[in-house]
């Protein structure tokens, strides 16, 4: 199973640019009972899979810089910046503060995160 750093860095890239079925990618990194809360929105497994469609359609480049991570037993936290360049040449830079609960196999079962868009 992927480690937490792979969850932060490879999962978004695979969802945006991968050729695998998005469900396969999501299941590689998350448990089936996934609960992903970000900025007050709740994504379950189906909504996270559906998010791959727009990401694949709109993203041209993706860069993720992980600034800090902390893992303690089944809890993990990270602070990172995601920069996305869209096909319309717009650049989005998003700061993310993420807290996760991990399953025994290392996959993520719950996420609570807050984000903010900053100037590129």
Look at the helices and sheets and give the structural class. Answer: alpha+beta
- In helices, the fraction of residues equals 25-40%
**Biggest β-sheet description:** 6 strands, mixed
User: In what range is the share of β-strand residues?
Assistant: over 45%
Our count of helices gives 3
Mean pLDDT: 94
Name the shape in a single word: globular
Would you mind describing this structure in some detail?
The chain is of the alpha+beta class and 120 residues long. Helix content is 30%, strand content 51%. The chain is built from three helices and six strands, in the order H-H-E-E-H-E-E-E-E. The chain has helices at residues 4-17, 22-29, 45-58, and strands at 30-38, 41-43, 59-72, 75-86, 91-102, 108-118. The chain has a six-stranded mixed β-sheet. Strand 3 and strand 4 (75-86) form a beta hairpin. Helix 1 (4-17) runs antiparallel to helix 2. The radius of gyration is 14 Å and the shape is globular. The N and C termini lie far apart (33 Å). The model has no long low-confidence stretch (mean pLDDT 94).
Could you outline the blueprint of secondary structure elements for this entry?
Layout: H1 4-17, H2 22-29, E1 30-38, E2 41-43, H3 45-58, E3 59-72, E4 75-86, E5 91-102, E6 108-118
Parallel strand pairs: 1-6
Antiparallel strand pairs: 1-2, 3-4, 4-5, 5-6
What are the key terms here?
alpha+beta; 6-stranded mixed β-sheet; 51% strand
Short description, anyone?
With 120 residues, this protein is of the alpha+beta class. The protein has helices at 4-17, 22-29, 45-58; strands spanning 30-38, 41-43, 59-72, 75-86, 91-102, 108-118.
